[in-house]
Amino acid sequence: MSRGLVLITGGTGHVGFRTLVTALKAGYRVRAAVRSESKREEVLSAPSIKELNPADKLTFVIVPDLMVDGAYNEAVKGANYILHIASPIVLKGEIKPEDYERTLIEPAVAGTTNILEAALRSPDVRRIVITSSVVAMVPAKYMFETNTPDGFVVDHNSRLPPPSGPYPSDFHAYNASKTAALLATEAFVRDRNPHFDVTNIHPSFVIGKNELVRDAKDITVGTNAVAIGPVLGNKSDTPITGSSVHVDDIAFMHVKALDPSVPAGSYIGNSDDYAGNVWQNATSIAAEHFPNAVARGILPNNGTQPTRKTRVNARKTEEIMGFKFLSFEEQVTSVVKHFLELKGENAE
Q1: What is the pLDDT of residues 211-230, one digit of tens each?
Q2: Exposed site from 25, 27, 123, 267, fewest CB < 10 Å?
């Protein structure tokens, strides 16, 4: 028996696709908002979708531009729930500084407010779950300049002031986009008093197999690059915040947040408790789990990735949602195993 109809945006992204599959497995009917017919075919051709054979439990609606006013008006009709995962992403160096507002911040805010406005017109909507980020809660100086001081812990109550440019890099602008979208969401709920609940999910770096990556050369697209980079021999001297979460856990959180027994609110996704992870440990994890691939040079396993310590408290998520986050070791193993599979190598 169906648990209701869920509209999912961003279903061809790393988090979005895994969430789509998780929602189907949980018994929901899914309507996926995609930007083109080719994106629809990308989802349908995925092995896990073929295995589920969802038939009419999975339908699609084309929304080519999430910034257009009323972009989601038709898509939300009849939906009981909305998982709004679509948001602009940043690929280092591809966006010029003068375009940060137009390509990152404005679309993040407009896409979120558009889905909220559309839901206001649809009485069937009961709850909306929005993918935010832990970067919407961490001051930029602790992301890019220095470790967090003793006693400073990011939790579900942490908030930042409204961002303003200029931004030193595209990653600073990305962080600003997440902050602006979160603040816009909370202002909407406060000022408009909608008939539906709104929950925000705040992942740290999302690590784990991305089934829609079909070529080994694309394994480093997105946040998986941080975890597998040292294993593939990439050498970086730029510290990156040591906070990560398995993609399966984030997908579970999105779907679990639809359950009325889970109070609406903010939930952080982050493994390994306050200690966080050490990115360089990916090489020792690879050596332990894939010794043959390391010995043969398939995995060079000689890269470097410094870690910037950030203390993140996600205990509320585990307590309320009733699960334990998968470890950094499980995250790395998932990505490396997928890489070896794509290379046609034995992952044992």
Answers
A1: 999 999 999 989 999 999 99
A2: 123
